[in-house]
Amino acid sequence: MIKLYQGGIFLANGSEIYETQAELLQKTGYHTTADEARKGTIAYDILNRHNLSDDIDALRLRFDSMASHDITYVGIIQTARASGMTQFPMPYVLTNCHNSLCAVGGTINEDDHKFALSAAHKYGGIYVPTNLANIHSYNRETMAGCGKMILGSDSHTRYGALGTLAVGEGGGELAKQLVGRTYDFARPGVIAVYLTGTPRPGVGPHDVALSIVGAVYKNGYVKNKVMEFVGPGIASLPIEYRNAIDVMTTETTCWSSIWVTDDAVKEYFYLHGRPQDYSELKPSEVAYYDGCVFIDLSTVECTIAMPMHPSNTFTIHELQQNAAEILYEMQEAANKQIQGAKMDLMSKLHDNAIWVDQGEIAGCAGGTFDNLCAAADILRGKSCGKGAFTLSLYPGSMPVYAELAKNGRMADLVSAGAIMRECFCGPCFGAGDCPANGEFSIRHTTRNFPNREGSKPGEGQMSAVALMDARSIAATAANGGRLTAATDIDVAYTKTDYHYDGGIYEKRVYNGWGRPEPETELRFGPNIKDWPEMPALSDDLLVKVCAYITDPVTTTDELIPSGETSSYRSNPERLSEFALFRRDPRYVPRSKEMRQAERDREIGKPLSPELLAVYAALVQAGLTCKPESTVIGSAIFANMPGDGSAREQAASCQRVMGGAANFARQYATKRYRSNCINWGITPFLVESPELFSLGDYIFLPDVRNAVLENRPALNAFAVKPDGTVTPFTVSTGALTEPERQILADGCLINYYRGSC
Q1: Residues 709 and 630 occupy one common structural domain
Q2: For position 646, which CATH number holds?
Q3: What is the rounded average pLDDT of the residues 650-664?
Q4: Does one domain contain both 352 and 440?
Q5: What is the pTM of this model?
Q6: Residues 396 and 429 in one domain
Q7: Sign of the dihedral defined by the CA atoms of residues 569, 573, 575, 580, in that order
Q8: Which residues of 296-311 are buried (b: 16+ CB within 10 A; e: fewer)?
């Protein structure tokens, strides 16, 4: 059972829920207000201790450490270098777990890794070699600590179960920390996630996590808030079970997460040689939360998230009982969103069962020690079969890999026909184990967004991914690919002790924190390029709508696809060619035309006949225009863009391609909106997008002053191809003072150059 409270709640003594102040006073004798009791949350205390401003409601945060992987760290370091960075001011972990196949683009992936190693020497960083650990496993094992804050350039930067308030953001926010600035953010609301009961055998952390995502994603219940896990049910969960739930809080669109800590967390830090990083975290005697997600763990069932979002959740039994109806519904919903090849889920229903072709247990969510041991218990002495079904396993770190080898669980898994892979995040973002065309994959990974499995519908390639827990994936494997809930099989789960071998990292990880070597030369590969110059925001702005997307949500994977494109992350110009290419293949050529028009304007070339006609229409409508000093750019409209990854390239590629503005009814995540701002793309909100269309121009007079003054509304004018001019209003939402200046300067790099 999952219940969402309609209003805020008081939590007394860590376990008693009261919906009103009067009820709290009557039942407990505690006399307090909601505003005062808000200070009693774990999140409030951690934020307060990391806040450099005098106003707790207007946070200016400094983090304890940071983390990036090999899709993001080159751009971040390049941005920070251009902004005046001379050394890393805090521990900065550079992992190599995304572009580690080194199979696309020649030497360019390994060139990035060597760049990172040289940067770790030069600036005093921590370099984790290829395939030694994925980013989040390493940070859990070595960097997390109770009461700490960690900032990562990956959206799944979540270490709340270890008492760490961790935040995934775009690279611009990390670059700010590297040059001594702060993370500026209005204090978020805090939602209690109240756990009670104990999960049944066979119900794993992904079942709990997906159930939560299904309950809160679509209604925005926790959007941009902190999820604070409390309640007696926490004590029933092993620490890796908690970690695997916690990492999936990203898929709710919350800002961060934090958990009550206890002896299980204390034991985790002791086991990993860091007992000093443990402290007890719990709410005050009375704490007020802005909402509550109440979960009875004993009622959670084996769950599946159908394509193409983690919130498309059903219990496995519900899916089996209504297979034809649900498979058809999910198939058709996906095919409305996909351009090109079509998904075929109905073909997976035959012989009185749903059949899948592939299983993956991987990474920060699936590749934990406990998950893989549970899979071994299920598969011991069994076989995945000789049919089409395959099972691949990706441990999160080499210490986990080594322990599985030592205790025999790896032998159990391999003997059943599973394939052990390296520590690699590929199955999460479409760069590893891509299924065959038409296949259906079940994965204990973080996401099943469009193309996250690596297919290319525009080239006739289409497969599908559903998310499931490792236990049900193993149960399905034991049945040769017949979809099976782990609660439907008879298994004797074993309690397996874990022995952490930190020497694996000591032998291979370069830790230069506090010991920069400024004389070290950065090692540049031929694909590593500097950021191009970005124009400042002019007094007026003219943009052409080069993509118009009416889907309810547009993910960052659609804005800049993952997979093989990741190899070009260090080359802004080349990567920008992939912007929206799977969602709207014509966006790039349209935007390029606007970029060229702006370049021509800058050197004094005459405007094109089309642009002259636009300005003539504006003058005819009574508007004053200054074409010679008005920046020309492209724009995108989407109802709710930016769900998913923290990758800044979802915004920077638009900018490199000539983008100057986005228009949206709302932005899916704070991190994507921040990415837009940091790259000089003004994130406009619009209530009446039907007033303009693909190919229309939008003129925004006095936009620079409006942004700098943070006006609540701005005038905009849509110019149709026939010369019709339609006025409407837009807004930017609340902008901090630095955000206003960043937009005015044209991007974060320009802002720092101007302030140095």
Answers
A1: yes
A2: 3.20.19.10
A3: 95
A4: yes
A5: 0.92
A6: yes
A7: positive
A8: bbeebbbbbbbbbbbb
Per residue in 16-62, pLDDT tens? 999 999 999 999 999 999 999 999 999 999 999 999 999 999 999 99
**Residue length of the chain:** 756
d(Cα 469, Cα 445) in Å, to the nearest integer? 9
Residues 6+ apart with CB under 8 A from 605: none
Q: Tally the domains of the chain.
A: 4
Distinct helix (H) and strand (E) counts, the chain: 28, 34
3: pLDDT strictly greater than 90: yes
Q: Which phi and psi angles does 7 have, rounded to 5°?
A: -135, -170
Q: Which helix (H) or strand (E) holds 127?
A: strand 126-128
For the purposes of burial, counting CB atoms within 10 Å of the CB of 521, is it exposed (0-12), middle (13-18) or buried (19 or more)?
exposed
Which among 278, 299, 320 is the end of a domain? 299
298 and 455 Cβ atoms separated by less than 8 Å: no
**Number of CB atoms found within 10 A of residue 531's CB:** 18
Q: 418 and 470 share a domain?
A: yes
Amino acid at 627: P
Contact (Cβ atoms closer than 8 angstroms) between residue 164 and residue 279: no
Question: In this structure, what are the phi and psi dihedrals at residue 449, rounded to the nearest 5 degrees?
Answer: -60, 165
For residue 293, count CB atoms less than 10 angstroms from its CB and return exposed for 0-12, middle for 13-18, buried for 19 or more.
buried
CB 388 within 8 A of CB 357: yes
Task: Note the pLDDT of residue 583.
Answer: 87
Do residues 35 and 529 make contact, with C-beta atoms less than 8 angstroms apart?
A: no
pLDDT of residue 755: 58
Q: Check: CB of residue 253 under 8 Å from CB of residue 223.
A: yes
51, 93: one domain: no
Asked if residue 509 is part of any domain, the answer here is: no
What's the alpha-carbon Rg for the chain, to the nearest Å? 26
Following DSSP, what letter does each residue of 225-273 receive, concatenated? SEEEEESGGGGGS-HHHHHHHHGGGGGGT-SEEEE---HHHHHHHHHTT
Comparing CA positions, the residue from 489, 237, 239 lying closest to residue 380 is 489
Range of the domain at 94: 61-184
Residue 50, phi then psi, degrees to nearest 5: -105, 0
Are 447 and 590 members of one domain? no
Residue at a domain's end among 451, 467, 500? 500
